[in-house]
Amino acid sequence: MESIDILKSQDHSSGRLLKDKLVLGAVIVLSLITISPIILIIWKLVVEGYRQISLDFLIENTPDTFEAMTAVANGELIPGGIANGIVGTLLMVILASALAIPIGILTGIYLYENQGSFMANITRDISDILQGVPSIVLGLISYLWIVKHITMGFSALAGSVSLAIMMLPMIVRSTEETLKMIPESLKEAALALGVPYHKVILRVLIPTGFSGLITGILLGISRILGETAPLMLTALGSSMINLDMTKPTSAIPLLIWEFYNDPNMVGLIWSSSLLLMAMILVLNLVSKQIVAKRR
Amino acid sequence: MTTNTIAEVKNPILSLNDLSIAYDKNYAVKNVSVEIKKNTVTAIMGPSGCGKSTLLRALNRMHELYENITTEGEALLNGKNIYEMPAIKLRRHMGMVFQRPNPFPTMSIYDNVIAGYKLNGIRTKKVERDEIVERSLRDVALWDEVKDSLFKKGTFLSGGQQQRLCIARALAFSPEVILMDEPTSALDPIATAKIEDLLVKLKEHYTIVLVTHNMSQAARISDYSLFMYLGELVEYGKTKNMFTNPIDPRTEEYLTGKFG
Amino acid sequence: MTIKKDDAINHIQADFEAFANLVLEQLDMMEQIVTSGEITVPDDVLKKILQNEKDIDKREVKLSDKIVNAIVLYKPVASDLRWIMACYRIILSLERIGDIVLNVTNFVKKIKTPEVYDRLKEVLSNMTIQSIKMVRKSLLSYLNDDREFAIWTIKNDVVFDEVNHKLLKKILAKTDTAESNKHLLMSIVTIKEMMSNIERIADHATNIAEAAIYSIEGKDIRHHKIDK
C-alpha cells in the first residue's frame, strides 16, 4: 500500500496536535488571569462582609461614629445598616431613569429616522463625547445647574441629573442600534397597512426592539448604580432616609466612601460593597432573562 | 411609445395617465399610461432597473418614503385620483405584499391578520374581529392549518405559510386591489405553486397587480402583462398574445433572453 | 439560460438543413427519372433513393425528439416558440414528400405502356420541376424569414392544381381511342383518385395512433416494426 506509506511519512499531524494543545493551554491560562480579579474581589467581599448582612443591615440607618467605635472596641458587629443609602440609591436611580429614558429613547428614534442628516450626525457625535466625559465633571455641571440655581443646596435631584446625563448616551446608542437592526420590511408592512408613521414607530418598531431597548436601559442603570464622584458634589449624603428630592440624600457608593474614611466604620465597607455587587448582578441576570423570554 | 394591444377597458379599476416618477430628477418611470381591468391578474415584468418596483410602489404611495421623489401625471382608483386622497386611506383600498414574508414578530397569528385594524386603533367588536380573521385565513387556505394555534406567534410557520399570512393580513381590509412585489421569489417551488394557485382564485374577488422577474410565472398566472424597459411601458396586452406574438422588438428581445 | 437555449436552437437548425437537403436530393433524383421519360430506373439511383429514405426516417425521429427537448427544457416563447413549432410542422411535410418520391419511383417501374408515358413526359416533367421549385422556395422562405417566397409558393399552388387538372383532360382528349374508352379512362382515373384519398384516411388514422403511443409511452414508433 504505497500510497498510505507516503501519507504517513508526510504526516505532520502529531506536531499540529501539540501546537493545538499549547494554544488551548495558553488561552485557558489567559482567560483565568482575566477573570481572576472578579473572583478575588467577590471572594474577599463575601468572606469579609457576609457576617454583616442581615435584615437590620437593610432596614436601619447608618450608625454614628461613636456607636461604631464602641462596637469595634468590644469586638462586636457594627450596629445599624445602610437603609438610607439603599433608599437614596433607589430614589436617584428612579429619578435619573425618569429623566434619561424618555429623552434617550426619543433621541435614539430621532437619530434612526434621520440617518444622514447633519443635525443627526452632530447629535450622535455629541452623545458619544458625552459618554467619555469624566463623571466628576458631570457632577460639577449638575452642581452648577441644580445645586446652585434650582435646589439652592445639595439635593437628590442634582445627583439624579448627573446620573441621568451619564445614562443618556448609552440609551441613545442602544435605541438607535436596536431600531437599525429591525428589518426594513416590518416598517414597510405596517406602512402598507395604512398605519401613520408615528404609530409605526410606537406600535411596531419599539415593541419589536423591546429587548434591545431594555438591555440598553438596564446596562445604563447598572453603570450608574456604582457611581460615586458626581454624587459627592451633588447629593452630598445623609445619615437619614430622605425622600425629598430637593434635599441631600445618601447613596450606597457614597456610604462606602464615608465608611472608608472613618476608621471606626471601615468594617462596613465589605458588606456594603457586597450588596452593591449583588444588585448589579441581579440586574444583569434580569436583563438576560428579558432578552431570553422575548425570543 | 407604448404598444397597447387591447381594446379600451370599460370601467378600469386602475387607470394610469402619463405617470412619471423621478428621484432627484432621474426618471425611474416615464409617462406610463395603462388601464387595469377589474378581477384580473396583471403582471409587470422587465429587466432589473426598469422601474417596475417603483411603479408598483407608486400605486399605494409607498414610494413617498424616499426623499426627493417627484410624481407627475395621475393615477386613478375607480376614478378617484390617488394622489389627492390621504395616503392612509388609500392603503386600505390597495393592499401590498412584499418579497420577504414579514409577519409582525411580536404579534400572534390572530393579531397579525387583524393588525391593520389594531395598529390603526380602529374599534371593532370581538365578533367582527373573529369573523375578519377567519374569513381572511380561509381566503388564503391557511385556516385549517392554523385554527388551533391562532394565538401562537407567527414565526413558527414555514416561509410559504408566513407569506400566506401576510396576504391574509392584506386581505383583512377587503381592499379592491392587491399589489405584490415578487411575492414568491423567496419561497421554495412548492410554496410558490400554492401561492400561484391562490392568486388565481383570489382574482375572483380582488384585482391583483404583481411584479415578477420570473417570466414563466407571469406566463403561468397572469391574464395581462406589462413589459417595462428603462422606465417606459413598452408593451401591454393579453399575456398569451404577448408571449407568442410580441409586437415591440424590445419585448421580443426580452422574452427570447437577449437581455435582462 | 439562454446560451443553452440558443445552442439547442442552432443545433436543431443545422440538423433541419441537413434533413431538408436530403429531401431535396431525393426530389432531384425524382426529377431526373421523370424528365428522362424512361420506364426503367437505373439501379444505382434506386439504391440511393432507398438509402436516403431510410436516413430521412431516422433523422425525422431524431429531430422531433430534439424539438420536444428544447420545448420542455428551455420553454421558448415568442419568435423562438413560433420557429420551433413551424420547424416541427415542416419536418412532417418533408418526410411525407420523401415518401412520395419513393412512391413515384415505384410507379414508374410499373408502367406497361412506354409510348403513352413518353407522350405525357412533358406534362409530368413540368409538374415535377414546378413542384420542386415550390418546395425549394418555401424552404428558403422559412430559413431566411423571406415572406415573398412564402407568398409566391402559396399563390402558385392554386394555379398549379388548376393547370394540371386541365392538362390531364386535354391529354385524354387527344388519346387515339373510342369516345367510350375515353369516358372509361376518365372514370378509372377519378375512381383511382378516390381510392388514394380514402387510403390516406387510413394513413392518417395510423398517424393518430402513433401519436397516441407517443403520448402514452413516450416512444416514437413511426417507421418501426411493431412487435407487440
Automatic annotation (TrEMBL), chain A:
Name the record gives this protein: Phosphate transport system permease protein PstA
Family membership: Belongs to the binding-protein-dependent transport system permease family. CysTW subfamily.
One GO CC term on file: plasma membrane
GO-annotated molecular function: phosphate transmembrane transporter activity
Pfam families xref list: BPD_transp_1 (PF00528)
Location of this chain's protein in the cell: Cell membrane
Keyword Membrane: yes
Domain (ABC transmembrane type-1): residue spans on this chain: 86-287
Taxonomic source organism: Sunxiuqinia dokdonensis
Any single GO BP term: phosphate ion transmembrane transport
Location, primary (coarse class): membrane
Key words, A-Z: Cell membrane, Membrane, Phosphate transport, Transmembrane, Transmembrane helix, Transport
Bilayer topology term: Multi-pass membrane protein
Entry-linked PROSITE patterns: ABC_TM1 (PS50928)
Automatic annotation (TrEMBL), chain B:
Enzyme Commission number, as recorded: 3.6.3.27
A Pfam family it matches: ABC_tran
InterPro entries in UniProt: AAA+_ATPase, ABC_transporter-like_ATP-bd, ABC_transporter-like_CS, P-loop_NTPase, PstB-like
GO molecular function, one term: phosphate transmembrane transporter activity
Cellular component per GO, a single term: membrane
Keywords: ATP-binding, Hydrolase, Nucleotide-binding, Phosphate transport, Transport
GO biological process: phosphate ion transmembrane transport
Keyword flag Transport: yes
Enzyme class: hydrolase
Residues covered by the ABC transporter domain: 14-255
Gene3D superfamilies in the cross-refs: P-loop containing nucleotide triphosphate hydrolases
Protein name: Phosphate-transporting ATPase
